[in-house]
Amino acid sequence: MTLERTTLRKFLLNLQKDDALDQDLVLLIEDIATSCRIISHQIHNGPFLNILGATETSNIQGETQKKLDVIANDVFLSHCSNCGRVAALVSEELEDVVWLKEKPEKGDYLVYFDPLDGSSNLNVNLSVGSIFSVVELEEDIQTLSNEVVLLNGTKQIFAGYSLYGPSTSLVFSTGQGVNGFTHMIGTGEFFLTFPDMQLPDQTDEFAINASRWRQWDPAISRYVQECIDGEAGPRQKTFNMRWTASMVAEVHRILTRGGIFLYPVDKENEARGGKLRLLYEANPMSFIVEQANGRASTGYQRILDVEPQSHHQRISVILGCSAEVERIESYYRELER
Ligand code: AHG
Ligand code: MN
Ligand code: MN
Fold first, then answer.
1. How far is the CA of 116 from the centre of ligand 2 (A)?
2. Percentage of residues of the chain with pLDDT beyond 90
3. CB 163 within 8 Å of CB 180
4. Rounded CA gap, 253 and 180, in Å?
5. Bridge partners of 114?
6. CATH number of the domain at 205-336, out of 3.40.50.300, 3.40.190.80, 3.40.50.460, 3.30.70.100?
7. Whole-angstrom Cα distance, residue 120 to residue 294?
8. Which of 207, 233, 260, 329 has the most CB atoms lying inside 10 A of its own CB?
9. CB atoms within 10 A of CB 141
């Protein structure tokens, strides 16, 4: 092992030294990293701690909560309030915004998170992750309400995820590219292992839950059919398909070797607006993908430009290599004409 590895702290302090990062944000990112290390420990020891399986409660989305959904949520709640600038926390697992300040001021932080993503994978020992992002308040707040956190994705100053796979990764962007870290077991440290992650423009790998094909709209059906048609079809190349049922794992694969991920609005989920949540799933991942030279769209619009209407809002998600996302956007435009 080389001794010159860059720790997360060294990486963050270098950004701070260059005036690219506030000290308070450095503290908050370190708290988020601590949360991820604790969650990783719990997940990897889940069967011994008797914390696999479901609770008897449902979250606000009407989904059964896994014990680890609740534990991961508690870990974020208790570790991300140390830095004096956090005004509020917004979680997939909590109905309302949690206010930490009575009089939030301009420049205070809103922290959004999906404490455990892909939690249906827990009981079968497959990859899960956490997703998080931070937005700065643009004005002093007089009335504390859920509406205050409805800010679009372009306002994010930090977004990231942790993937609890064979190793635990921490990948994030502060708006200057994307960097990936790995937790070295036994050291308590994240080390920079994947500097400046970039997506290629093109890909021959797609990820979609194909069991939903009867529900798809014509643009999605056309795209997937053309991929499946391979060399004989209009794309004139063979495509590969993956589906891990964890957006974090999909995005990590795409950042590592390219690809495209789709969870579109379809006939079954249309009334809810889609499956994935805008503020704590789609926005953070779109920020990262764009920062890595990729593209993220609803099919009609850049995800980061969508003005949120409610804090648990769902949205259509198509993200990954730019040329592929643009191709699907062009299919939607053709449909409109
Ligand atoms: P969560 O576990 O936070 O509810 O999110 C799961 C999401 C996402 O990560 C994944 O891509 C998708 O749901 C899986 O959906 P399917 O059940 O359709 O495979
Ligand atoms: Mn999720
Ligand atoms: Mn979740």
1. 6
2. 88
3. no
4. 12
5. 131
6. 3.40.190.80
7. 27
8. 260
9. 19
Q: How far apart are CA 274 and CA 303, in angstroms?
A: 13
Judge if pTM exceeds 0.85: yes
**Residues contacting ligand 1 via CB (< 6 Å):** 63, 92, 114, 117-119, 209, 245-247, 263, 275
For residue range 262-309, list pLDDT tens digits in order: 999 999 999 999 999 999 999 999 999 999 999 999 999 999 999 999
Q: Token pair for residue 255?
A: 């950042």
Alpha helices in 54-96 (DSSP H): 67-79
pLDDT, tens only, 192-224: 999 999 998 889 999 999 999 999 999 999 999
Pick the CATH number of 8-194 from 3.40.50.1580, 3.90.550.10, 3.30.540.10, 1.10.3720.10: 3.30.540.10
Q: What spacing in Å lies between the alpha carbon of 228 and ligand 2's midpoint?
A: 27
Q: Is 181 exposed, middle or buried (0-12, 13-18, 19+ CB in 10 A)?
A: buried
Instruction: Name residue, tokens 């592929």.
Output: 324
The answer to whether 233 touches 198, Cβ cutoff 8 Å, is no
Q: Which residue in 141, 140, 138 sits closest to 157, CA to CA?
A: 138
User: 118 CA distance to ligand 3 centroid (A)?
Assistant: 6
Record the tokens describing residue 268, joined without a space. Answer: 């079954």
Buried b (16+ CB within 10 A) or exposed e, 287-311: bbbbbbbbbbbbbeebbbebebeeb
Using only the alpha carbons of the chain, give its radius of gyration. Answer: 20
pLDDT at residue 53, as a whole number: 78
